[in-house]
Amino acid sequence: MPSSNRLLRVLVTPPKPGMLDFVNKAKWDAWKSIGNVSQDEAKQDYVNLISSLVAAEGPAQVVAKPTGSSAAFETLLVTTEDNITTIRLNRPTKKNAITVEMYNEIIKALELAGNDDSVITVLTGSGDFYCSGNDLNNFTKIPEGGIEKLARDSGELLRGFVKAFIDFPKPLIGVINGPAVGVSVTLLGLFEVVYATERATFHTPFSQLGQSPEGCSSYTFPKMMGAAKASEMLLFNKKLTATEACQRGLVTEVFPDSSFQTEVWTRLKAYAQLPRNSLALSKQLMRGVDKERLHAVNNQEVEQLVERWLSDECMNAIMSFFQAKARL
Amino acid sequence: MPSSNRLLRVLVTPPKPGMLDFVNKAKWDAWKSIGNVSQDEAKQDYVNLISSLVAAEGPAQVVAKPTGSSAAFETLLVTTEDNITTIRLNRPTKKNAITVEMYNEIIKALELAGNDDSVITVLTGSGDFYCSGNDLNNFTKIPEGGIEKLARDSGELLRGFVKAFIDFPKPLIGVINGPAVGVSVTLLGLFEVVYATERATFHTPFSQLGQSPEGCSSYTFPKMMGAAKASEMLLFNKKLTATEACQRGLVTEVFPDSSFQTEVWTRLKAYAQLPRNSLALSKQLMRGVDKERLHAVNNQEVEQLVERWLSDECMNAIMSFFQAKARL
Amino acid sequence: MPSSNRLLRVLVTPPKPGMLDFVNKAKWDAWKSIGNVSQDEAKQDYVNLISSLVAAEGPAQVVAKPTGSSAAFETLLVTTEDNITTIRLNRPTKKNAITVEMYNEIIKALELAGNDDSVITVLTGSGDFYCSGNDLNNFTKIPEGGIEKLARDSGELLRGFVKAFIDFPKPLIGVINGPAVGVSVTLLGLFEVVYATERATFHTPFSQLGQSPEGCSSYTFPKMMGAAKASEMLLFNKKLTATEACQRGLVTEVFPDSSFQTEVWTRLKAYAQLPRNSLALSKQLMRGVDKERLHAVNNQEVEQLVERWLSDECMNAIMSFFQAKARL
């Protein structure tokens, strides 16, 4: 045990049934006050706390993988019809939070959609949420290499994920069926068209979690809406309504919730009848102007985010998140 | 005759008086179904069909060229007054569609305006239309080198035309007196100020014609309005009202049609009294940031468009256009 | 005396008590008509006229410099509280016009704020104005090296001033408490967030004074609002209301004047509680994409402005300004 500090004793104590008591007592100030704990010890404490809190949540959802079909996904529903390939995030009970598996499946689904004979590709969500962003449980399965390896692996995953959007060769349409959070918002800067229900909101609370922007938003958002509106979102966590997002250029058009699906899919079916190559080549022309820049931005964002994940600010904020969750 | 296919027999048959019958029967599917026609033969068919349809339209407008005055144009009215050089597209009966001759004359007029002692230069249209874009008849006068030569020549013409706008050294003001289509819209991203009557609309139906964006719009439009609004126009053919164009930054201000000319020219005359060099150098400063990029974008757009013009998608769409016209 | 021209005789005559007469007579045309005056002589005339007009204004404000505290400024009020460093322009009787001293003090204050332990930095103004821009009296204290040296020195000062904003390492918030003019407007493109009272206006009348844009606005303004809206401001002197500035992305949000300070500072205090490093690094990430470009733009803008300051157009416009002032 690295320290006899009272908090640390609590941290390494198996949390249940005492966990709620612990959570109520563990104020953030306490963490900051551990003057005699080294950086390595702090990381170990993070690992211990997170593991115990997550263990208290019960086992993660595990679904048996269907075999024999390459188009079968565990976290997505992917269909191709009327020249449209639709990738539907399909963890509605978890607000379509993106797990490690879902990151990998979206990369795979985009690769398939890019090569199939569809004209346009649609990304949307099942249920009332579009996507609640990165599943913070991704930060709780700490591998043997420890928290540094977790951060590096997560960085590589994110880099490849965003790269798949930068390089996607066809028009990509977002059908935003409800609230969107984090990376599911920032990526919209790489879509061709974004249609949103009036119920949708757009929230990128990076600094609250001690993190920093990704999805190329540090480049696409200021380009799209100017620095003064982009920073309000990316630094100061402003949550936008669908109408505000439309005024800022993040969303192409907003629809009443009652007619959202009907109106949007009518349009998409019309778009999918347009000359296939003309659309793909025009999209690639527009993307080409920025492509090299986007890859560089993606790399820099990921590099900084990996450092952020290993920072006290970020680990504290994530612990705070799980403590608040445990308290409920 | 390259094929005994029924459609092809029709294609090489002198079209009148049977042309309307032909048009009614020649469904798009038919064209696509010609499995045994090679790419070269398809191009020859295009040449034959287009020639015959255009021949049916009657002779092209030919106006005697006035001699002896370098400022005299056939397709433009160009005047200089009150420090303002005005270039007025002047084919009102053709909605100011841009012929090969008009492309060349606009290049010449911009060169003269850039070197005269005016302070600002205005581009506007005669009649109710601002400009209906590229005159598709440009694609019907097929030279000896065949359709490849036509495409290459058209590409060089377009490249030089857009270049004249990129390099124009003074403030360039668009006075958009009515609907604008195609390249007359995309070029507006290279203007300093764009004033529009409320009657104006802005339409870039490239993919409908199997084509792709030009006029540097693949760069200027996303920069101005964000990718989600730019792609709706440039990929999916969204036609904007003047007010929508103003909200997206394509138009500086919209005026009631009744007072449009009065209000706009009052302003322009005031602008033309401002210090000449200050205006020109400030414009060049702003353009300088992007100039190299704009030339590169222009080159890439033209290169892609030449390939598009030689594609089946595009030739089919243009034939479809002329067939629909013949049907009226 | 370089010339016996009637105007020049007037120019070198001690102006008081005859100055108002002189001003009424000295029409702009007269200046232009001096065909036999060389460029050097014209500059000397500028020096003489400006000196005499300024002399007629009475001595410049001189305030005793407080000694012994490095955070004491003559033209600014700088405080740090609640993790916020506030830099307040403090020449309210001069509408916070920026003198040479104030340029230097703002550079110094930004350097200190960048290195102190505050989380965010705020720039605002004392009194009813935010800032009336460059104090034209800066052009009246002509050093021994003459007007060329004045222009070069002013250029170096401006370059360093704008550089301090480009390189500022933390979120920078503008609290725009009233009208803003000139460089105080253009610099806003380098801020993270801009909150404005509804009373604020935004005016960049560069061409009126024969000058050209600075503060990186030739890059940030077109990027933010598109060329058609940027040129209207930077070339044609359009003054924006706060609401218009917000629609164009120059301002983040507009507040009623009655609740402006309360609402804004409530937010700022909340922002200042967010993780310090996350905010600073996120800001640097967003700035990093553009930083090299911004420095290049700053250099080009300054280079052009130095040439402008030495031009007849500009000297004439500044003389005109002081003559109009003397006339009041």
From TrEMBL, chains A, B, C:
Protein keywords: Isomerase, Peroxisome
Domain spans labelled ACB: 1-59
Keyword Isomerase: yes
Location(s), subcellular: Peroxisome
Gene3D superfamilies documented for this protein: 1.20.80.10, 2-enoyl-CoA Hydratase, Chain A, domain 1, Lyase 2-enoyl-coa Hydratase, Chain A, domain 2
Lineage: Eukaryota, Metazoa, Chordata, Craniata, Vertebrata
GO molecular function: delta(3)-delta(2)-enoyl-CoA isomerase activity; fatty-acyl-CoA binding
Cellular component GO terms, alphabetical: mitochondrion; peroxisome
Protein name: ACB domain-containing protein
Chief subcellular location: other
Xref: InterPro entries: Acyl-CoA-binding_protein, Acyl-CoA-binding_sf, ClpP/crotonase-like_dom_sf, ECH/Chromodomain_protein, Enoyl-CoA_hydra/iso, Enoyl-CoA_hydra_C, FERM/acyl-CoA-bd_prot_sf
